[in-house]
Amino acid sequence: MNTAVKIPQGLATSDMVREAMLAEQKWQQTGLHITLSELQ
To answer: Which of 11, 20, 24, 38 is such that its CA lies 20 to 30 A from the CA of 31?
Structure first.
C-alpha cells in the first residue's frame, strides 16, 4: 500500500520518499546531478 508520509513541505507518498532516497544514493555514488536551469 502506498501511504502518505508527512514531511516539512507537506505530504509525500511512500513511493516518492523511496524514489528520492534512491536518487540521493545514486548522486552520492556518481556525483551526477541536474541543475534547475537544465531541468527548465
So the answer is: 11
Dist CA 28 CA 33 (whole Å): 10
Residue 17, C-beta contacts closer than 8 angstroms, at least 6 positions apart? 5, 7
pLDDT in tens, 11-36: 888 888 888 899 899 989 998 888 88
Distance CA 20, CA 35 (A): 16
Tell me, what amino acid is at 7?
I
37 to each of 13, 19, 22, 29, 32, how far by Cα in Å?
26, 22, 22, 23, 15
Whole-model pTM? 0.60
